[in-house]
Specification:
Structural class: alpha/beta
Distance between the termini: 72 Å
Strand order of the largest sheet: 3-2-1-4-9
Number of strands: 10
Strand content: 15-25%
Shape: globular
Helix content: 25-40%
Radius of gyration: 21 Å
């Protein structure tokens, strides 16, 4: 019997409609090909929480997710638990708080996280293969699919490999499979490493930068699956989708006003 795993994703004002009103989350779960103990949704930074929660409740009733949480309801608890503060995270707060709340709330042995704009491709039994390696090797702290099908890049960043995974350093908040207990430890988020300076400056002392530092300082590694990938793409914001829909409606109205096309008789 495999260990219990929660799969989670998050939404915010500019993508909640796309995630909650399409089959996006269902595809995320289906492509992962695993029997999850929980399927959770984190809702963060939305203008109308009631409206978003109502949409999430429909997904609960249909079985797409098992539960959902408003990040704002738990952010102070999570920050206290990890010994962090808004000022300590700086500009990285907005890029970190949902992930911290997700780890704080997770009750299963493992947690698989996808950002709202990341989608796994169907990849077989990679989760089972990763869990086996977690159990065998205490240095392994995170596993993930290959980012955007960049297998050559993943291989170049590795220092070892086996039949299924590249082994290397690094961490990304786009997706991660982790042992929950490892990441519920306060010291994880209070270390620095010179190599972690490669993360974007606009993110401040964000979640993924802090984890990368902790992993490098203690020679912990991540596994990157060699036979499957996830795609990270910025999809249109809600405002842009509305403009595109309006433009499409106008084009259809214009076409109807012109009447049926006249076939050439030449």
């Amino acid at each position: 019997m495999h260990p219990s795993v929660t799969v989670e994703t998050k939404c915010w004002e500019n993508d909640w409609e796309f995630l909650l009103k399409t089959d996006r989350i269902q595809r995320m779960v289906d492509h992962s090909a695993f029997e999850f103990a929980r399927k959770a949704l984190l809702i963060n930074n939305v203008r109308s929480p009631g409206k978003v929660c109502a949409a999430a409740e429909k997904l609960v009733r249909s079985g797409v997710i098992s539960d959902f949480h408003l990040v704002a309801d738990y952010e102070n608890e999570a920050l206290d638990f990890f010994g962090l503060s808004r000022s300590a995270l700086g500009s990285g707060y907005v890029y970190s708080i949902a992930e911290l709340v997700g780890i704080y709330l997770c009750e299963t042995e493992y947690l698989l996280h996808f950002s709202g704009d990341s989608l796994p491709s169907p990849a077989g039994a990679w989760i089972d293969a990763a869990l086996m390696r977690f159990e065998r090797n205490p240095r392994v702290k995170v596993a993930n699919l290959t980012w955007n099908h960049n297998y050559v890049e993943a291989a170049s960043e590795a220092f070892a490999q086996d039949e299924d995974f590249y082994t290397g350093y690094g961490f990304s908040d786009q997706m991660y499979l982790v042992r929950t207990a490892d990441f519920r430890s306060r010291p994880v988020y209070h270390e620095e490493h010179k190599m972690s300076a490669r993360y974007p400056e606009y993110g401040g002392e964000l979640f993924e930068k802090r984890i990368d530092s902790w992993m490098r300082n203690h020679d912990f590694v991540r596994l990157t699956y060699k036979h499957g990938a996830y795609e990270h793409r910025n999809f249109p914001t809600s405002k842009l989708r509305k403009r595109l829909a309006l433009a499409g409606a106008r084009m259809k109205a214009l076409a109807r006003s012109r009447g049926p096309a006249i076939e050439s008789k030449d």
